[in-house]
Amino acid sequence: MHQALVPTIIHGPSLRQRLAARGFDSVTLLVLPAAIFSLCLFVYPFAFGLVLSFEPKSGGWLANYERFFADSFLYETIAKTLWLAVPVTLLNLVLAVPVAFRVRLMRHQRLLTTILVLPITLGTVLVAEGLLNYLGPQGWLNRTLMTFGLISQPLKLVHNYWGVFASLVITGFPFTFLLTLSYVTGIDPALEQAAATLGASASQRFRHIYLPLLMPGFAITFCLSFVQAFSVFPSAVLLGAPAGPTRVISIAAYQAAFEEYDYSMASAIAMIMGFVQLAIVVGVLASRGLFYRGPASGAKG
């Protein structure tokens, strides 16, 4: 009598195992709330604004963009905003580097860092009001200079380009400094000590050791600081000339939305503003490879 052949059923991996093999496990699910939050807070408003920008009050679907680039009073806001954001970002980065190198060697680093980043807690409006009281025609600085006979009439330091410039430097430096300090302190000091032992000067150590390792960090710091400065609005209104040299692109978007009640045009200006920032960021991140030589293997940890 032949023994009955029982078919053998080979079970494949379970659904959980297949998802885990592709990186979808219980830990990955923890990211899901943050992803949904980002989708609701950033992606949806951007998509809504992009669609709205192609729905002008009159004309074709590109009428808002055609109007923007046909009106010099509108498209010149791009150059005016860049003329503020780029120099401010470069100056903050240049100032942050030596300060970060100095602070990392001090004993009371936390106290000094707290003092340096204090302006970031004040807010843009409060800083602007303080500068108006200090740099205005009847401010402390002008009155002091006139009391000592150094000037005969008040210096015009606000309601122009330089008032906005000073405000952006004060509010942007703490952010730039914190990012720079994190990159500087992440480099192993043994590399500098080895170069010093071989006879390299301070400038040579910075140029051949620190600069190549810091260049990726400098690029990211520049991009984040630039985006922060490019979105200037309160300073340009309170300390600048909103109808003149400091009529930045955010003011143009505000006027289109809340003075002309043309939300479609305001969305188009906001989209242009975003694409200009994106172009600068992509250009900076793409060009950092021209200065960075080799992997950043000198970081601690």
TrEMBL record:
<feature type="transmembrane region" description="Helical">
    <location>
        <begin position="27"/>
        <end position="52"/>
    </location>
</feature>
<dbReference type="GO" id="GO:0055085">
    <property type="term" value="P:transmembrane transport"/>
</dbReference>
<dbReference type="GO" id="GO:0005886">
    <property type="term" value="C:plasma membrane"/>
</dbReference>
<keyword id="KW-1003">Cell membrane</keyword>
<feature type="transmembrane region" description="Helical">
    <location>
        <begin position="82"/>
        <end position="103"/>
    </location>
</feature>
<protein>
    <submittedName>
        <fullName>Sugar ABC transporter permease</fullName>
    </submittedName>
</protein>
<comment type="similarity">
    <text>Belongs to the binding-protein-dependent transport system permease family. CysTW subfamily.</text>
</comment>
<keyword id="KW-1133">Transmembrane helix</keyword>
<dbReference type="InterPro" id="IPR000515">
    <property type="entry name" value="MetI-like"/>
</dbReference>
<keyword id="KW-0812">Transmembrane</keyword>
<keyword id="KW-0813">Transport</keyword>
<dbReference type="InterPro" id="IPR035906">
    <property type="entry name" value="MetI-like_sf"/>
</dbReference>
<feature type="transmembrane region" description="Helical">
    <location>
        <begin position="161"/>
        <end position="184"/>
    </location>
</feature>
<feature type="domain" description="ABC transmembrane type-1">
    <location>
        <begin position="78"/>
        <end position="284"/>
    </location>
</feature>
<dbReference type="Pfam" id="PF00528">
    <property type="entry name" value="BPD_transp_1"/>
</dbReference>
<feature type="transmembrane region" description="Helical">
    <location>
        <begin position="115"/>
        <end position="136"/>
    </location>
</feature>
<feature type="transmembrane region" description="Helical">
    <location>
        <begin position="268"/>
        <end position="291"/>
    </location>
</feature>
<keyword id="KW-0472">Membrane</keyword>
<feature type="transmembrane region" description="Helical">
    <location>
        <begin position="209"/>
        <end position="230"/>
    </location>
</feature>
